[in-house]
Amino acid sequence: MKKFISTVKNIFSIEDLRIRIVNTIGFLVVFRLGSYIVLPGVDPNQLEGSSEGIFGLIDTFLGGAFSNASIFGLGIMPYISASIVLQLLTVGVPYFQKLQKEGESGRKRINQITRVLTILITLAQGIGYIKATIPSDAILVSQVLFMFSSLILLTSGTMFCMWLGEKITEKGIGNGISMLIMIGIISNLPGAILGEVVSKGTSGALLLIIEFFVLFFVVVGVVALTEATRRIPVQYAKQVVGGKVYGGQRQYIPIKVNASGVMPIIFAQSLMFVPALIAQIWSSESDIANYIGSTFSNPTSWQYNLVFALMIILFTFFYTAITVNPEQIAEDMKRNGGFVPGVKPGAPTADFIDNIISRITLPGSVLLALVAIMPAFAMIAGVGNQFAQFYGGTSLLIMVGVIMDTLRQIESYLLMRHYEGMMKSGNMKNNPSNYAVA
């Protein structure tokens, strides 16, 4: 406790870091306040409340703004969708590959295209959002006027959320976009805990303690999965420049066991609602359709979780393949005079790295699938539906990832000012500054 208090004092004694933390808190407060501002022309008393299914997942990310018919009702989700589309285009379209290689000018051009695509996606999603989530009884003005004004406000709200995320990244601490998602998820945690405590009552105190005990170890496991890396040793050849010797050091390239992050779960979660949607269309004509609809609408059924887990494993391999390029890593190493001991530079090095990625991706994908279906096991064990969402899945992975990234940034500020770090060793495990950048 004494070391913790000392670390907090050190953090707030650094003026730049203190200002960044205050800025971050201020931007997050603005974001949370905006989630309670209802679209003009809507009677909030007529809203149906919490959403279910994929809408419930989005509502969790937005901290209730989705179900509140807020001006931030779509939040930064259209921006994330646009970023994913651009990322996939960068892999398969030569024009975007060229932009990516043009350095700063190329990145600015990609950012401009991402913003335009975000506006288009927001307009498209806004129409579906208004029709699907806002009952006609809750609309107090004409439908045409409400649709027009709401699309403008939802688009403006999304762009404002993007601006908040960029300002957090620039003037705050942590990744702004990820921080906005995390604060939306965390805002649901107090209500979930309170609901679980009330539902268990005094008679279920022991069961409640066991639930928190299990949750602690689940969080520890997710942290281990998020931070686990396979270090590839890299030896740099000695070079004499101006009478000085450079290189000759052994460094490491960290390859993450879960290099794809939460994207496989997001992709799989989106597709898991397709069978139930199709079955709903044909439900009146087929018993099989009724069976499929009821099965895939139940997140605790073994069929749902089996298909969900298999899709996550497949998407993990797919996403890792398009985001981690062994040939590019090997080429960068060769250009910088680096080589893996015992492996020839060039194509053999690329094959060596590719084999390592393939070997660690399989256990990583299986563990990621297990984390994704943990909420289902929690619900089967008797944990409340809302509280069970924090036993795994996208919510927990995002929370852990953002918190660890923020702690790394705070750690770097402390070490730069010659303060003792947040860990006893003075360096957080897997700090990127400890490794070679290939």
Automatic annotation (TrEMBL):
It comes from the Bacteria. It holds the Pfam family SecY. GO terms for biological process: intracellular protein transmembrane transport; protein targeting; protein transport by the Sec complex. Keywords: Cell inner membrane, Cell membrane, Membrane, Protein transport, Translocation, Transmembrane, Transmembrane helix, Transport. GO terms for cellular component: plasma membrane. It is a multi-pass membrane protein. Its main location: membrane. SUPFAM superfamilies: Preprotein translocase SecY subunit. The chain crosses the membrane at residues 21-39, 76-96, 116-134, 140-165, 177-198, 204-225, 259-282, 302-324, 366-384, 390-407. It is found in: Cell inner membrane; Membrane. Component of the Sec protein translocase complex. Heterotrimer consisting of SecY, SecE and SecG subunits. The heterotrimers can form oligomers, although 1 heterotrimer is thought to be able to translocate proteins. Interacts with the ribosome. Interacts with SecDF, and other proteins may be involved. Interacts with SecA. HAMAP family: SecY (MF_01465). The central subunit of the protein translocation channel SecYEG. Consists of two halves formed by TMs 1-5 and 6-10. These two domains form a lateral gate at the front which open onto the bilayer between TMs 2 and 7, and are clamped together by SecE at the back. The channel is closed by both a pore ring composed of hydrophobic SecY resides and a short helix (helix 2A) on the extracellular side of the membrane which forms a plug. The plug probably moves laterally to allow the channel to open. The ring and the pore may move independently. NCBIfam families: 3a0501s007 (TIGR00967). Belongs to the SecY/SEC61-alpha family. This is Protein translocase subunit SecY. It comes from Echinicola vietnamensis (strain DSM 17526 / LMG 23754 / KMM 6221). The gene is secY.
